[in-house]
Each structure stands twice: as C-alpha cells, then as structure tokens.
UniProtKB/TrEMBL annotation:
Signal peptide span: 1-20
InterPro entries linked to this entry: DUF1223, Thioredoxin-like_sf
Pfam family, one: DUF1223
Plastid recorded as keyword: no
Coiled-coil ranges per UniProt: none
Name by which UniProt lists this protein: DUF1223 domain-containing protein
Keywords of this entry: Signal
SUPFAM superfamilies: Thioredoxin-like
Length: 230
C-alpha cells in the first residue's frame, strides 16, 4: 500500500521539466500524529526535486496527547489556521499539504499531490533570483502586476533530522523529517516593483529559502515566487 501511494508521486515528478520558480509545498505535520509519517516520507521525496521547495511545518495542537513535538511552534499552527480562514473553513488537518499557497490536500495522497504540483509548475513564472555580492547574498524580485499586497519572506530550514518518538501515537518509532522549518521571517512588503534585498548569512547546518506570497486581507494567498539561497 505504501509503495502505491508514493510511487505515482515520484514517477510524475521525475518526468517533469524544470520550472521557472519552484513550486512551494508546505506540509503541516506533527510527531504526535499517527497518520503523518507517510506524508513526512512523501515530503522527503519532494525535497529531492529542484522544481519543488518542500517545507515541513510542525504544529503544536497534538502535543497534549503525550508527546511534545520537538519542532513544533505556535506560529506554524497559526499559519495553518490562517490558510483555513482564507479558504473560509474552520477545519485543519494533520497531515495537510498546501501547494503554492492556494490548494490544500489532507493525507498522503501521492497522485493527487503530484497533479496539484504539476498544475502549479506549469503556471509559475520567473519572479525571484539570488545574486552574490562582495558582502553577501541578495534576493532580486522582478516587477510584476499584483492583485493583492505581497510579502517577501525568509524561511530557515533544517535539511534533515531523525527523531525517536518515545510517547504518544507514534511511541517507539524513529521518524526522519526533511526541510523542517525552524524560522519564518518577514523581509519586506512588496507592491510588485523591481526590488533587491540583502540577505542575512545562513547559520551552519541550515538552509534558507525566499518566498514571495500575496497576502489578501492579511491572509496567506498564492505564492508568487520562490527561490533557494545557495
């Protein structure tokens, strides 16, 4: 059963041409959720593809059942709930994927997820780029017409970590997590003009991504561009 879930995802993505800006896939997950490990493994597959930026955001609302997630943060729970509000819903799930800031999918459904990624990949433009200077790295945003105010955001991730879970629904399991978000920082408001920003140095062992996301009515909307800071 697990192979039938994961293989359609891998086959579809391996056959895909390179996109302009990668498709951002956020996974809201928890170490205390017994349904999450297949989705965590799926995100690990996605993290290997250059045309996808795969992000693992650990929520804290499962902590009460006996295991406090070591990567959870209330701001990630708030982000997931903000997506629900934007979709006029009061329901959140774990695991839950959000693709491109617009489409959500509950559960580890490889074929449906690959179809969403393909649709977003085909629609993506070339919005963000990274450049080196004598003093560090910069992100450059190309001018575009925006339907709503947008933010440029710096996302800091831990590329991989294995966690032994001692209590709760996953007690006794060793689970490997990929691209675990450790910090999410606003860089600037963006109204669609050409823009260049200096970026902070990356901490050792961590990786940076920059996202441009529309924020209609202050809620997370479509992700307009994304880039890895190498």
């Amino acid at each position: 059963m697990r192979l039938r879930t994961l293989l359609p995802l891998a086959a579809t993505l391996l056959a895909a041409p390179a996109a302009a800006d990668p498709v951002v896939v956020e996974l809201f997950t928890s170490q205390g959720c017994s349904s999450c490990p297949p989705a965590d493994e799926m995100l690990g597959q996605l993290a290997q593809h250059e045309d996808v930026i795969a992000l693992s955001l650990h929520v804290d609302y499962w902590d009460w059942i006996g295991w406090a997630d070591t990567f959870a943060a209330p701001e990630f729970t708030a982000r997931q709930r903000a997506y629900a509000t934007a979709a006029k819903s009061e329901v959140v799930y774990t695991p839950q994927f959000v693709v491109g800031g617009r489409d959500s999918l509950a559960g580890a459904k490889g074929l449906q997820l690959s179809e969403l990624i393909a649709a977003h990949r085909d629609a993506n433009g070339d919005v963000l780029r990274i450049a080196s200077t004598g003093t560090g790295r910069q992100v450059m945003a190309d001018a575009t017409v925006l339907d709503a105010p947008a933010r440029l955001m710096l996302v800091t991730v831990l590329p991989e970590a294995e966690v032994r879970i001692l209590h709760g629904e996953n007690a006794g399991r060793d689970v490997t997590y990929h691209n675990v978000v450790r910090a999410w920082q606003d860089l600037a408001q963006w109204s669609g003009e050409d823009l260049t920003l200096d970026l902070p140095d990356m901490p050792d062992g961590l990786v940076h991504f920059v996202l441009a996301q529309a924020m209609p009515d202050g809620l997370p909307g479509p992700i307009l561009g994304a880039v890895r800071v190498d």
